[in-house]
Amino acid sequence: MMMTVKEIKKSLLVSLWFVFLTFPIMVIKVNPIERTVTWRWSNVLYVAVGSFVISLLAKAWLVRKARAAGRQQAACQARASILQELLHRPGYRYPLIIMFSGLALAFPHLFSTYQANIMTTALMYIVLGLGLNIVVGVAGLLDLGYVAFYAIGAYSYALLNLNFHLGFWAALPIGGLLAALFGLLLGFPVLRLRGDYLAIVTLGFGEIIRLVLENWNAFSKGPSGISNIPRPGFFGLEMSLDHAMIYMYYLMIGLVLLTVFVVNRLQHSRLGRAWLALREDEIACQAMGIDKTRIKLTAFALGAFWAGLVGVIFAAKTTFVNPASFTFLESAIILAIVVLGGMGSIVGVICSALILTLLPEYLRALSEYRMLAFGAILVAMMIFKPEGLIAAVRRTYRFHERKSVAALQDDE
Amino acid sequence: MMNKRMSKPILDVSGLTMDFGGIRALDHLDFDVQATEIVALIGPNGAGKTTLFNCLTGIYQPTDGEIRLACPKTGQQTRLNGLKPNKITEKGMARTFQNIRLFSQMTVLENVMIGRHCRTHSLILGAILRNRKTREEEQETIHKSYEILEKVGLAGQVDELAGNLSYGAQRRLEIARALATEPFLLLLDEPAAGMNPQETVELVTLIRQIRDEGHAILLIEHDMKLVMTLSDRVVVMDYGEKIAEGTPEQIRTNREVIKAYLGEDGE
Ligand SMILES: Nc1ncnc2c1ncn2[C@@H]1O[C@H](COP(=O)(O)OP(=O)(O)OP(=O)(O)O)[C@@H](O)[C@H]1O
Ligand SMILES: [Mg+2]
Known about the structure:
The complex is a heterodimer. The radius of gyration of chain A is 24 Å and the shape is globular. Chain A has a two-stranded antiparallel ribbon. Chain A folds into two domains: 65 residues, no CATH class; 301 residues, ABC transporter involved in vitamin B12 uptake, BtuC. In chain A, a hairpin with a 4-residue loop joins strand 1 and strand 2. Chain A starts with a helix and ends in a 28-residue tail after the last helix. By secondary structure, chain A is an all-alpha fold. Chain A contains 16 helices and two strands. The C terminus of chain A is likely disordered. Chain B is of the alpha/beta class. Chain B has two domains: 177 residues, 3-Layer(aba) Sandwich (Rossmann fold), CATH 3.40.50.300; 74 residues, no CATH class. Helices cover 37% and strands 23% of the residues of chain B. Chain B has ten helices and ten strands. The two termini of chain B are 23 Å apart. In chain B, 48% of the residues are buried. At the A-B interface, helix 10, helix 11, helix 12 and helix 13 of A face helix 2, helix 3, helix 4 and helix 5 of B.
């Protein structure tokens, strides 16, 4: 290994820093009832050695990568991941798809309803991630207030049901469209903003919606929220709680499929290319004859639409909404899904949504270290895969001779 | 100096002025471009050439003056002041950038397809349903983009990321992307910068070919040999003002021009 003394020193510093940072939670244990403090000194050793080794490994990896990059400088075309590679080979493609869909369909019967419930939440985050992916990943507009559209969807079902007794299926499209409308409303004032400024304004927008819901008691019932929201009906059939949960699961599977289909087609269309161009270079994009106002607004509206749909489903699933479900933390998680998944990559967003929502659940075994481990995994992902889990691969286009015009096929 | 020839000009600039705070980058500039003419715009660094392009294409709003564009086919004239850059491109004037501004994470073909955006129409619903009309439009876009890439000699690299191309190839891709918008007037900002002699020769052939296909070209260039062999007419700028205009031969011997390039005591 080409590790120099300097790098070992650096790793030592990193581990000292980690010991210092984790000291309050790892070493000091306060028992508030007996009013005693236990000092767990052995943990210092674990943290120090652990972080030293990890830091050294990361450094070694970076050194190796730098050398590899030096060797093949120019050829930095994004390589397809194994999964994308397989999906593109006709021999593997359909068996893989059949396998995945079989697994997805059988899931609630193989595992408990509890597991199916967790999976439903994960599926909801997939749709949220794919929606935000249009805005952030494809069009490159940093939106930190995405949760506002989720809230709008949830509250539109809750309120429409409370005031007008509207059912789930009627509220679903209304929630989506209302969110899209608010997406447009947010779009107009931020048309001229870019980067950090856009992020700040959208963050503010998210908070405004939440604060309105929290304080306008007459309209939204304030912090206590709205309860007794009916679950989705199935042709008037009465369902037990278990069955309702499984029904929700299948509903989400359907929505995920629809979202993937629509988002994939959008991405590989005239509009999708214009979004990408906008992300790459706003001035060149305009100079090429693209109306930037228009495509920005469509990106905001189409992104918000999915959040609205998922919002309605969320309200129906929990049968209760209150503003506390729509804090900035939600926006941050959805953004993390998009960024870690690989900006603009549908497969990537799906994988990272599954990881980011299922991981905390299955890390429960680690009890109090759960969030620590979660954070460590996020950091590791950012170090080892800075371009995201699965980077988007550019599509190649071919001109089909007259006869096969209809046989246009595509994929991510 | 120049006798006004034949028909109405396709680009007519009069009294164009651009101030940046205290700096006057363009000072009451008048000039025009005729259909299928190659006009070169030269001048020392900082003379305001790129600023002129930015004003023409709507990226900057000029402080004063008029810009008029007339379609050579219909003869219809439009005032460009105040129009957005995308509208101006739609009217039939496209440009390349001095500091290459390709969409570097998109493929070569996609870059050119972006240029087709303003000549195609499919919208959200078309994209989702992918109906017959959308599919045909998409095929036409691909087809036309391939043709243009063949013309500029990039047909072999269609699936390469634009950012991975060599410098000269990137400049040619910029031209291809601009051509895809179907302009009748093409603005080229230092297209030969950074090219080797071989590439420059190919570029001259390409620009001639583009002109012969019926496009007018306004080009900024520092390579005097290229300017003198290629252009029908040369406009010389210094400190935002037009100091001379004429055929390459007239410019070569113009005292004002020599002074601007060699300094006050030059010669
Ligand atoms: N956005 C701007 N803000 C302030 N000043 C500007 C701006 N753009 C250009 N200028 C100034 O206008 C003048 C002309 O610049 P311009 O880029 O047009 O020169 P140029 O003729 O293209 O030079 P070169 O041959 O080096 O490309 C310069 O003094 C420049 O500093
Ligand atoms: Mg310039």
